[in-house]
Design a protein that fits this description.
Helices cover 13% and strands 35% of the residues. It is mainly beta and 318 residues long. It folds into 2 domains: 209 residues, no CATH class; 81 residues, Nuclear Transport Factor 2, Chain: A (Roll), CATH 3.10.450. The chain has an 8-stranded antiparallel sheet. Strands 2, 3, 4, 5, 6 and 7 form a 6-stranded antiparallel sheet that branches. A 4-stranded antiparallel sheet has the order 1-8-9-12. The two termini are 32 Å apart.
């Protein structure tokens, strides 16, 4: 991850004086690591050092209003609740007129705000409590795309801001707990998880599945049994596409994106006849650029069938 030097130096000094509670998800998860991802911890009470003051001067309008096109929250008027507290985002020139409150949890508030970092437009999420603030920023146009939403994690909690059209968000914790959080105004905020954040996955408006995993991620062994399969439902193909994408982060380590390239009823399977099965083919994007040219790492094939009334993956072919 590349940081803006002046901002980095200010944050290092601030962090040396205060307990580090949050981190940018990008710092631990390569998918979200973009050039301007930052972490800011700022004590709110009292007078801050000169370098920690936030300039509340609006920056120049973003080209083509990219944020308003990507995020519905920037298409509504600002309210008094949307105003970002002063000094909540250190080392940046924030567009104060465009800050938006996107989520709350107890005494924690999550804001989204455009900000200028040394001449580079960014989108930042800022977590504010009565005691401190923490922030992560992604450069535009990356932040206006579906693959690199800004996010924070740590101390069992996490926060994300997703663009319009994002669906099927899943959060996996380090203890293996898999959650389907409620997304409101594009935001997900959890301040007291039972375990550290490990994996976030979501499907963008394009239909591509995106996966972000850190060092706490655990993966399941591919299914090997041949279960008793039940008849396929009428909408089996659509269901199979969705289920296969949802399971990518369970069975394919080191993958940052996946999309369905085909669904078919196989002529046969390792378990016998294929009439009650669907074979889903995936195009996978490894998170390691050096592995992207390997056919064995960029393709996936799964067998799905109805078991116990639920369509699920019952075997991996590749």
């Amino acid at each position: 991850m590349t940081e803006i030097p002046a901002l980095r130096d200010a944050l290092v000094r601030a962090g040396a004086r205060r307990r580090r509670r949050r981190r940018t998800v990008g710092a631990a998860v390569p998918v979200l690591a973009v050039a301007a991802a930052v972490l800011a911890l700022v004590s709110l009470p009292g007078r801050a050092p000169e370098r920690e003051r936030v300039a509340q001067t609006p920056v120049a309008p973003l080209p083509d209003d990219a944020l308003a096109r990507a995020y519905a929250v920037f298409r509504r008027p600002q309210t008094t609740a949307d105003v970002l507290p002063k000094r909540a985002l250190a080392g940046a020139v924030v567009d104060a007129a465009r800050s938006r409150l996107v989520a709350t949890a107890g005494d924690t508030r999550l804001f989204a705000v455009p900000a200028d970092l040394r001449g580079t437009p960014n989108l930042c999420v800022v977590e504010v409590t009565p005691r401190h603030s923490a922030a992560a920023c992604n450069r535009l146009p990356e932040a206006a795309g579906e693959a690199q939403p800004p996010g924070l994690s740590g101390s069992g909690g996490y926060a994300f801001l997703f663009p319009d059209g994002t669906h099927d968000v899943r959060i996996t914790l380090a203890d293996g707990t898999r959650l389907a959080p409620t997304v409101h105004d594009g935001a997900v905020l959890e301040t007291a998880g039972a375990s550290d954040f490990a994996i976030a996955s979501w499907t963008g408006a394009s239909g591509t599945r995106h996966i972000s995993a850190n060092e706490f991620a655990r993966y399941e062994r591919p299914p090997e049994a041949c279960p008793a399969l039940e008849p396929l439902p009428a909408d089996a193909q659509a269901q199979a596409e969705r289920v296969a994408l949802l399971d990518v982060d369970r069975f394919y380590p080191g993958v940052e994106a996946a999309r369905v390239t085909g669904v078919r009823v196989p002529d046969g399977t390792p378990c016998g006849s294929g009439e009650r099965s669907l074979e889903v083919s995936l195009a996978l994007t490894p998170s390691d650029p050096k592995a992207r040219s390997s056919a064995s790492l960029s393709q996936g094939r799964l067998l799905l069938g109805v078991v116990g009334g639920e369509l699920r993956v019952y075997q991996l072919l590749h």
